[in-house]
Amino acid sequence: MKKRMAIIASNPGFGGCANINEAFHLHSTLYEPVEITAQPAPYNYGERARGNRLSITNFDDQETIKKILDDRETCLFIVDLSGLMVICHYLSVKQKKAFSHPYAIARGQANKDVDALIEELSRREVIFFWTGTQYLLNYDRVNEWVKRMGIKTTFAMPDLMRCDPKAKPLFQPHDYTPPLNGNKYVNFTITHSPGKKLDSKERLGNYWNEKGTEQIARVFDEITGNGIKTMILGGDFCVPHDVSILVKAKSHLFVDKITEHSAGVGKSGLESLALGVPVLCSMQHTRYEGRYAGIPVIDVRDEIELKENIMLLYGNKSLYKSRCEQTSEWAQIINYENTVKYLEQEMEW
Predict the structure, then answer these.
(1) Nearest in space to 129 (alpha carbons), one of 297, 295, 342
(2) pTM higher than 0.85
(3) Would you call 13 helix, strand, or coil by DSSP?
(4) Distances (CA, A) of 326 to 265, 273, 301, 344
(5) 3-state SS, residue 183
(6) Each residue of 99-108: pLDDT tens digit?
(7) H or E element, residue 308
(8) How many other CB atoms are there within 10 angstroms of residue 301's CB atom?
(9) DSSP characters for 76-124?
């Protein structure tokens, strides 16, 4: 009989929550997943696993969520600090008192709630998956929580493993079957996503440059034309998630991040890798080891290196073809089936 596992996040898109849910839904022989989020899906993530998706914002789901979390046999796979929004809501209903936002608790602004949170999770089978900025900003305090909870296993995106030396590496899984990268744009096309799909640069505010988009945009302006096309999938060219996937699949290259403070390939870059599209990204803070060693991301640190590598691949068809083949081969590591096998081997409750 399969063991029930609640995959908990702020929303289905955060940390690949819906992807993890869908992967276990399709391939696990040990776990029956149910996705519980604080907010509904922002995009059409995890469509094949929609039948086991719940949100605390949906009134009709609240009683079911309570029953699932009341069951001490349910193990909890919590995606980063934001996943604790669901746990804090559960405790608020259960104890009939208001709980602070987990970000405030992590910053030490709500110490009164720390003990209750630790007491609840120390009696549960819990795994954390570190994948967000709030963990990066507060990891010392959060790691101490994890120690007090007696949690045996944590996972982290490779760029966050420096914050939790005991964490095991985990990339968000992606599965595109059949491959979507067969038909490319006529012009050699390079795309980039700033990370927030709002409708204008002005509304994006500080997020516009979270991934070095200002620098990337300058390079794009320099190289566009003479057979080269560039696109930024956000700001003034905002598209739904499913459309962005098709755009990336038809592109020849994807630029993820080129900043010092936000290094390491993220969700958007992983989507491109899964599509067989070569990715350029700053990699200076990332530990790639074990199953993720040899990731074929092109490491660029500044505008000069970004432009040089794009033009090199544009001008050398055999090199570009080799890069595509390496990317497509490596992408099998992060598909759903192989990721579930890896997690089932490494998860210790």
Answers:
(1) 342
(2) yes
(3) coil
(4) 16, 10, 21, 27
(5) coil
(6) 899 999 888 8
(7) helix 303-315
(8) 15
(9) EEEETGGGHHHHHHHHHHHHTS----HHHHHTTS-GGGHHHHHHHHHTS
